[in-house]
Amino acid sequence: MSSFPNFAPPAGPPAQVAKNDVGAAATILAPPTGPSLPLSKLAPEAALRRLELTIVRRLEGFLHGDHMGLLPGAGSDTNDARLYQPGQDDVRRMDWAVTARTTQPHVRDTIADRELEVWALLDVTPSMNWGTEGVTKRDLGIAGIATIGFLSQRMGDRFGGMIMRQDSIKRLPARSGRMALYGLLRTMLTEPIVPDHASGSMTLAAGIEQMVRTQRRRGMRVVVSDFLTPGDHELDPNIEPDWERSLRRLAVRNQVLCIEVVDSHEIDFPDVGDMLIRDPESDFSRYVNTSDPGARARMNAASAAQRERVKIAMRRAGVGHIQLRTDRDWVEDIARFVLTYRRVASMLHAPPQGVAR
Amino acid sequence: MMWTPMLGLPEFMNPGRLVVLLVLPALIVLYVVLLRLKRNVGIRFTNTGILAAILPKQSRWRRHLAVALSLCSLIALSLAWARPLGVEKVPRERATIVVVVDVSQSMLAVDVKPNRLDAAKSAARAFVKALPSKYNVAVVSLSASPSILLPPSTDRSAADRAISTLEPEDGTALGDSIQVALDAVALAPKSADDTVAPGLVVLLSDGQSTTGQSALQMADRAKQKKIPIYTIAYGTDTGYVDLDGKRERVPPDHDTLAAIAADTGAKSFDAESASELNDVYGNIGSEVGFEEVRREVTARWAMYALAFAVVAALGAVSMAARWP
Prior knowledge:
The structure holds 2 protein chains of 2 kinds. Chain A is an alpha/beta fold. Chain A has 2 domains: about 25-60 and about 115-350, 3-Layer(aba) Sandwich (Rossmann fold), CATH 3.40.50; about 70-115, no CATH class. Chain A has 9 helices and 10 strands. In chain A, the strands form 3 sheets. In chain A, strands 5-4-3-6-7-10 form a 6-stranded mixed beta sheet, with helices on both faces. Chain A has a two-stranded antiparallel ribbon with strand order 1-2. Chain A is elongated, with a radius of gyration of 23 Å. By secondary structure, chain B is of the alpha/beta class. Chain B has 11 helices and 12 strands. Chain B has helices at about 5, 25-35, 50-55, 60-80, 115-130, 155-165, 175-185, 215-225, 255-265, 275-290, 300-320, and strands spanning about 10, 45, 85-90, 95-100, 135-140, 145-155, 200-205, 230-235, 240-245, 245-250, 270, 290-295. A 6-stranded mixed beta sheet of chain B has the order 6-5-4-7-8-11, with helices on both faces. Chain B has a 3-stranded antiparallel beta sheet with strand order 1-3-12. Chain B has a two-stranded antiparallel ribbon with strand order 9-10. In chain B, strand 5 and strand 6 form a beta hairpin. In chain B, helix 5 packs antiparallel against helix 6, helix 5 runs parallel beside helix 10 (about 275-290) and helix 8 (about 215-225) runs parallel beside helix 9 (about 255-265).
């Protein structure tokens, strides 16, 4: 597998931190005060140039790009042959083979090549301000967006972002080019941290709905979140999470990738003794004996079932699913996903009946 | 009697030490402040929806209850340190008991078998016999002209005989009989150190006062002399006696007797049968056999503190993560 980028994950805290600084692990006590990753470590741009994100849905746009468009126009991909209209059609586009077979002059239509517009929705609610392995979930999500962004940097492709805060959604306009992408990532990194128990009732479903409403042009959508609903303890995969319906609406016209950001200690419940555990979003506060191996085993089983439910819900909604973990190299995870995605994307993103590809 | 100090605060030998109670509000404030500050400790965790469903809920009220009981224990300890005074019952060393027995004609009623007088006599004999031998006993008959049948003496056989010789007479003079009983108390011999044994009157009556002075007035006099009068309303409300071919109803006068007892700080009893009368005399025997003395009851308050502390400790242990 030599096609994987050989890119070492960030190890240890940055050089300029104080002696007692434990890095992002301090977020288990208090919300972080700034990004836990510098901009330069988000994604290895050069290494990602050799990878390409498969785009299977047809796009609409106004520029000449590298991806198959939805409507006919000047492009490189041939479409149907049709009768030659004298005075309207260019004789250089005559399809001589069809003309000979039918004895009627035909021209060959092409499908316009369009640019791709990618919009990334970043969840920055307080539960994302958490991470035990050197990087917070929020910054891991930004790194995932960066990696996807560099993977989809073709000619004229635009990349936009939406930052979902607890009280509002901030929109970062879509621009093309790598400098614009760097600007977007920098804005995401420096976006003020949402304090714990912030006012506002934004849910992931509402954020996705807003994305459906405001970004009408077909393209690719990336949703970055931990897909946890505060207070939700449902484990049955047959019961839809509240964001699934919105996600399905988003997937009708767009190719959607979901980046599920997970911390290793959300899956493996930590053993920290008798501890007061608080939720950064809800008013949950309870003493828990985390040294009880039985309780930890039940907790881990429930977390696994919860992740399975998220995975099944995404599969049902017909979206691509990448799980990134704070203790793993996200570039490797995304690269592995992209290689598999080449083969399965057309099946995965088959549009609902009655909707054009 | 035992629980009187629980109802109100007792007197203290060192009331100044109660100042330590001022520490308690400070402790309560400290606890509330710590509760507030505790919201800033502990760890953040994201997936608490699952956590709440999986792990058992630890109730907050048990924590508060343990703290409240600890505070109660501290209060009891502080009060114990101030050396509270309480009322304690100690056996009476010596006393003069005046047994007043009604001998009016109504005592011939047969609602109590064999008749009221005979039953009363045997009960009184048993009562006198059961009294501690150091007590003086006097016997007074209650009729229109009450008389001292036996001046106070420790001779139980004489008292027995005096009671046995009671014969029915005419009339009931409650007030006069109380006067005579008080006189009998005064006849008690003085002890070596020239003090008089405390007097107690046990008055058994079965009817309305017909002649003589007001009973309540005499009760007031007994109260001044600090002589309690235990009263027994004897007989049933439907009791009757045939006098000169005429049937008279002779119900006991519950209200007056109760008023006399309450006035002099004693108790009143009702007895409608021989066995009830025996019980009542037994009760009175245990009442007069003890006196109430004010003493330091520090140990009792320390025991309350211990009880609170034990419950609080059990609560705290039950909250601990690791049961031993």
